[in-house]
């Protein structure tokens, strides 16, 4: 299996500013996302990822996000095994210093 590609907060901010066609999936719990999410991110809690992938587009590239980067790595591994192109946000929301929407 190929290793999961990672993306830093700075790289992700740059991609978003340039309007690149990527989808963000935040796998944190409800109470965590209540404190804010990266603009444009879709909230799919980690335990819902296996059923949610059925409705996701395999032509898209996905960046997975959690608090520290561990849960999102688990989601990224699962999604990559299912045939998705994924990247994991290194350090998760702890490293994100961009805008948040609440």
Automatic annotation (TrEMBL):
Keyword set includes Transferase: yes
InterPro entries: GlpE_sulfurtransferase, Rhodanese-like_dom, Rhodanese-like_dom_sf
Keywords assigned by UniProt, alphabetized: Transferase
GO terms for MF: transferase activity
Domain Rhodanese, residue spans: 18-102
Keyword match Cell membrane: no
Membrane spanning stretches: none
Pfam families, A to Z: Rhodanese
SMART domains membership: RHOD
Taxonomic superkingdom: Bacteria
Name this protein carries in UniProt: Rhodanese-related sulfurtransferase
Highest classification ranks of the organism: Bacteria, Bacillati, Bacillota, Bacilli, Bacillales
């Amino acid at each position: 299996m190929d290793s999961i590609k990672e993306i830093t907060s700075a790289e992700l901010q740059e991609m978003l500013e340039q309007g690149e066609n990527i989808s963000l999936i935040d796998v944190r719990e409800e109470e965590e996302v209540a404190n804010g999410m990266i603009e444009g991110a879709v909230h799919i809690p980690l335990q819902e990822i296996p059923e949610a992938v059925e409705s996701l587009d395999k032509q898209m590239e996905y960046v997975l996000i959690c608090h520290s980067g561990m849960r999102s790595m688990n989601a990224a591994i699962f999604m990559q095994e299912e045939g998705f192109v994924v990247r994991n946000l290194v350090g998760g929301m702890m490293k994100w210093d961009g805008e948040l929407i609440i």
